[in-house]
Automatic annotation (TrEMBL):
Pathway entry: Aminoacyl-tRNA biosynthesis; selenocysteinyl-tRNA(Sec) biosynthesis; selenocysteinyl-tRNA(Sec) from L-seryl-tRNA(Sec) (bacterial route): step 1/1
SUPFAM superfamilies: PLP-dependent transferases
Name the record gives this protein: L-seryl-tRNA(Sec) selenium transferase
Biological role: Converts seryl-tRNA(Sec) to selenocysteinyl-tRNA(Sec) required for selenoprotein biosynthesis.
Species assigned in the record: Salsuginibacillus halophilus
Name of the gene: selA
Length: 461
């Protein structure tokens, strides 16, 4: 290694005198931070020389230019939001990796206002004293569901854990084997139960559980019977399960709770649109369950939250539990959930929620958007085909349901599908998340809104 190669390295002062460095300083970064990053980039270049990355002696000006280029990229990366907006062209309405339910404009605006202003999140204007954040949405939840009381925690897994820990720790919980589901991220009902301290008692078989299975398992150590809605899979054929109503009639003991985890949080009856047979929260309440848990950001169409509804005496105990503070949600979540729940005052306003709208939207409406996108891409000399596809609800809900939809397949000469998919995913803002099929890049228009068509087309260079 030649020592003169190291002498070509610029000093920190030399780089800082460059006009491009002055431009970076004007971006508002702390100068100490910027200097530290500069030192790291100079050291990186030193390591390149030390490890033989250069085949010929580098020139000082070239090194300065390269260091400034890397430093600029680092500044831009810092300033860029880590949570990037994307266009979901997969056709999966509740795409977990892409954020599940899209909020309504009203819910998003409410969250924004709650974040930028002071609010009555824990303040009672009538008394001038401290209030409860649960009051923000409790009356809406009880009105809509028919439950005596309700509260909100940060997600449904937390809600399930909370109920089990509060009412069944150290005691037995009866669950049908066919309902011991695993949700996204390898989280299992049995594992959550174990963490809560509850003792799992499995009854029945994978495909069949009878009422007598529950009856035989009940004893003095039983704290509750738990029903889990198998929202992320379904069984066909030789199957049997026991309804919550039947279990409650069989139980007859106030000290043994019936707890139902609904998961998806359906408030709008999609079966009226001939879409699936997902039980609604209202139906679960009528079935007689003592406590019911469900998600806020799935088919309910709101922000991430876990909602617990049920008997007032039980909810009151949960509100006073130490975990209530550990699992509580912030003011922006409450604001967005409040606006989402407001929409359920009628079927028509509920249909306007993006999650509900995107599931029930007729295929012919999706077809019109597909034609519009295809026309824009053809004008940019892309080959396109509009074709019928099957969309999914997603989010671990309605696994058996396929939604009739339309997509646009896109191709261009001299460009592979993989190259084109990578371009629209990495080089466009917002990124377009699509899939490759039979040598085409395919976009499902069910999950591309009308106001996203221009950006979707612009993503194709």
């Amino acid at each position: 290694m030649h020592n003169e190669w190291f002498r070509a390295l610029p000093s920190i002062d030399e780089v800082q005198k460059h006009e491009n460095y002055e431009v970076l300083k004007s971006e508002g970064l702390d100068e100490v931070r910027l200097t530290n990053w500069l030192r790291e980039e100079v050291e990186r270049m030193r390591n390149h020389i030390r490890t033989g990355k250069f085949s010929v002696q580098p020139e000082k000006q070239a090194l300065i230019d390269d260091i400034l280029h890397r430093l600029t990229a680092r500044v831009l990366t810092w300033q860029k939001p880590r949570l990037e907006q994307v266009i979901n062209a997969t056709g999966t309405v509740l795409h977990t990796n892409l954020g599940r339910a899209r909020l309504s404009d009203e819910a998003a605006e409410a969250a924004k206002e709650a974040g930028r202003r002071y609010s009555t999140i824990e303040y009672n204007k009538e008394t001038g004293e401290r209030g409860s954040r649960q009051k923000v949405v409790e009356d809406r939840l009880t009105t809509l569901t028919g439950a005596e009381s309700a509260m909100v925690v940060n997600n449904n897994a937390a809600a399930v854990y909370f109920v089990l820990q509060a009412f069944a720790s150290g005691r037995k919980v009866i669950v049908s084997r066919g309902e011991l589901v695993e949700i996204g991220g390898s989280f299992r009902v049995s594992s959550i139960m174990e963490e809560s301290g509850a003792q799992l008692v499995e009854v029945g078989t994978t495909n069949k559980t009878h009422l007598y299975d529950y009856e035989r398992a009940l004893n003095e150590e039983t704290a509750m019977v738990m029903k889990v809605h198998t929202s992320n899979f379904y069984m066909q054929g030789f199957t049997q399960s026991v309804s919550s109503e039947t279990i409650q009639e069989m139980n007859g003991r106030e000290d043994i709770l019936l707890f139902e985890d609904l998961g998806s949080g359906v408030m709008y009856d999609f079966s009226k649109e001939h879409i699936g047979q997902e039980p609604t929260v209202q139906q679960a309440v009528k079935s007689g369950a003592d406590l019911i848990t469900f998600s806020g950001d799935k088919l309910l169409g709101g922000p991430q939250a876990g909602i617990i509804a049920g008997k007032k005496s039980l909810i009151d105990q949960l509100k006073k539990h130490q975990l209530a503070r550990v699992l509580r949600v912030d003011k922006m979540t409450f604001a967005a959930l409040d606006e989402t729940l407001k929409a359920y005052i009628s079927e028509e306003t509920a249909k306007a929620l993006p999650a509900v709208r995107d599931v029930i939207e007729p295929a012919d409406v999706v077809y019109e958007r597909a034609l519009l996108l295809a026309d824009k891409l053809q004008a940019k000399h892309y080959k396109t085909e509009v074709y019928p596809v099957k969309s999914q609800v997603g989010g671990g809900t309605m696994p058996e349901v396929e939604l009739n939809s339309f997509g646009v397949c896109v191709a261009k000469e001299s460009v592979t599908a993989a190259e084109l998919e990578r371009t629209i995913r990495l080089q466009s803002d917002p990124a377009v998340i699509a899939r490759i099929q039979d040598g085409w890049v395919c976009l499902d228009l069910r999950t591309i809104a009308l106001d996203e068509i221009e950006d979707a087309a612009a993503a194709f260079p």
